[in-house]
Amino acid sequence: MKILIAPDSFKESLSAEAVAQAIGRGFQAVFADAELVLLPVADGGEGTTQALVAATGGALFSAEVTGPMGKIVKASWGTLGDGTTAVIESAAASGLDLVPMAQRNPWHATTRGTGELIMAALDAGARHIIVGLGGSATNDAGAGMLQALGVRLLDKEGNDIAAGGGALQALHSIDASGMDPRLADTQFEIACDVDNPLTGEYGASAVFGPQKGADARMVKQLDACLGRFAEVVLACHGKDIDATPGAGAAGGLGGAFLAFTQARLKSGIDIVMDAVEIDRHLEGTDLVITGEGRIDSQTVRGKTPVGVSKRAQRAGVPVIALAGSVSEDSDLVHAHGIDALFSIVPGVVTLPQALEDADSNLYRTARNIAATWKLAQALEARRR
Fold this sequence. Notes:
Blueprint: E1 2-5, H1 16-30, E2 35-38, H2 48-56, E3 59-66, E4 72-79, E5 85-89, H3 90-94, H4 112-123, E6 128-133, H5 143-148, E7 152-154, E8 173-175, E9 187-192, H6 204-208, H7 216-237, H8 249-260, E10 264-267, H9 268-275, H10 278-282, E11 287-295, H11 304-314, E12 319-326, E13 340-343, H12 351-356, H13 358-383
Parallel strand pairs: 1-2, 1-11, 5-6, 6-9, 9-10, 11-12, 12-13
Antiparallel strand pairs: 3-4, 4-5, 7-8
Helix pairs in contact: 1-13
């Protein structure tokens, strides 16, 4: 029996590699002779750099950059095996897990550090840059990133606006004349984990603002700020980005790339799965296990579990997904190739406890699934 284990990370708890290992131990306890293929993946959020560097035999680097709340953080980035392609995660420099829960505030959070990572890659000679969007603490439409790259975002008096999504309410014009000239010759491949537009009911603020610390009032204000950014981009640069799928990724960072670079937005999970050659690993596979920290209606909009399940579905392989949190609308994933879905949380627990116990909960759930799978095989054998 061959079992492919291809999960994403469980945000703020376990890396994708640690998740795969815990699931693997659970299956190994029941199927000691099974061939287990551990293939940790990502969808453009945290873990994307590690997955791509590992898959291609590349190299990891680090740089000190501006974190989402303005403090200096050490962020990793990498080059792929070809030595000329860089890979960067917005989460590494501007990520939600860099900010303690009580301090999260998208009104002030900035993507400047992501721009500083891009500058580090340019300085290292990269002219093809894969940027993973996802897991950000920000809602500034990539304003901080643009400022780090030499773009000026100005108010009515011609002064540079402050950091954060809230500062966009004062935006009057955008001057891109000072943008680093190397960017004109740089190919950007943007790995998105969502296809949300910039504003509106399914936009960056409404869908992702609450998990970044925004209450209902702030969500409306931030949505208006992103709308202002879109208006100024259209007026100053002739690009209408508001309704473009993926523009709302990473708090509008996708929109900044669309407006000011020759970027192509692609499914982050497809970029990673192609790099790790998941289709090759699916050959001869009997069962796929995938998962991520939360599975809900957003999962079908480009997240890892559905990305994996679509590849498995094409290969005719059944898929089971595990999650720390399963929402009431998670049944939507069954129409996208996920045959069964399980929460690993054993009962009512606090969020900190669930995060702390994720490894043991994954092991226990995987072992029980493996035991059920083995029982089904035994029953099938008896019928024959």
